[in-house]
Design brief:
The chain is α+β, with helices and mostly antiparallel strands. The protein has two domains: about 110 residues, no CATH class; about 55 residues, SH3 type barrels. It contains seven helices and six strands. Strands 3-4-5-6 form a four-stranded antiparallel sheet. A two-stranded antiparallel sheet has the order 1-2. A hairpin with a 5-residue loop joins β5 and β6.
Length: about 190
C-alpha cells in the first residue's frame, strides 16, 4: 500500500509541476521583508550601509554577502550569521538593535531561512556558480604602505581597489596602490587564480 502511495505522489509531481513548491525569489519574496524592517540602516536606496551591508545592492549581495564564508551561507541557514542576527534577540549582534526598529516575525524569519536553504539565489534563473565571485577561504595578512595590518579574505580586484572581507562579514575596499608591495603582489596573484 505504501509503495502505491509513493508512485501516486511521484506521478503527481512529474505530471503537475505547477503543484510543487516554487523557489523563493529574492527580489519579490525576501527583499520586501528587508525593505520594511532593515532598509533604514542597510540600503543603497536610502544611502545607508551600516556594517557596509546594503540589502538592496544585488551585485554586492551576490559577490560579497552570500557565500560559504559570508554572513549568508547558501544551503546552510542554521550556519548563517544573518539567521542568528534576526532570530536571537539575546544575541549581542541582534538585528535590529533594541529600540532601532521592528523585529522580523517568525513567518518572515522562516522565509529568510527557506531562501537560504534553497541556495540564497538573488537571481534564481542564474546559477550561483555563474554569478558569485569566489571569496578565498583563507584569511591573509594585508599591510598598507604605512605598515598597518589587517587580516581578511580576498574577494577580488575591482579596478584599482582590492575587495576584502573581514571576519565580521564587513566588506572593505582599499586602493591597491596604498598597500605595501608584498600585499599588492598577493592581491594580483589571488586575482589571477579566479
Amino acid at each position: 500500500m505504501l509503495g502505491m502511495r509513493k508512485v501516486a505522489l511521484v506521478s503527481v509531481v512529474l505530471c503537475c509541476p505547477g503543484l510543487t513548491a516554487m523557489a523563493l525569489d529574492y527580489v519579490s519574496d525576501i527583499m520586501p521583508i528587508f525593505d520594511a524592517k532593515c532598509f533604514d540602516c542597510h540600503s543603497k536606496r536610502e544611502g545607508v550601509s551600516k556594517g557596509s551591508l546594503q540589502l538592496d545592492n544585488l551585485v554586492d549581495m551576490e559577490e560579497i554577502y552570500i557565500g560559504p564564508y559570508a554572513s549568508m551561507k547558501p544551503g546552510k541557514p542554521e550556519e548563517s550569521d544573518l539567521v542568528r542576527y534576526i532570530s536571537d534577540p539575546a544575541d549581542p549582534d541582534t538585528m535590529p538593535p533594541k529600540g532601532k526598529g521592528e523585529r522580523l516575525t517568525g513567518e518572515e524569519i522562516g522565509l529568510v531561512k527557506r531562501w537560504l536553504a534553497e541556495g540564497a539565489n538573488v537571481h534564481p534563473q542564474k546559477s550561483r556558480a555563474m554569478t558569485a565571485k569566489t571569496v578565498s577561504a583563507e584569511f591573509h595578512s594585508w599591510r598598507n604602505s604605512g605598515g598597518k595590518e589587517i587580516k581578511a579574505r580576498f574577494a577580488g580586484l575591482a579596478g584599482q581597489k582590492v575587495e576584502l572581507l573581514l571576519a565580521n562579514g564587513v566588506k572593505y575596499s582599499y586602493p591597491l596602490d596604498k598597500l605595501d608591495t608584498e600585499s599588492q603582489a598577493l592581491a594580483r596573484e589571488l586575482d589571477s587564480k579566479k
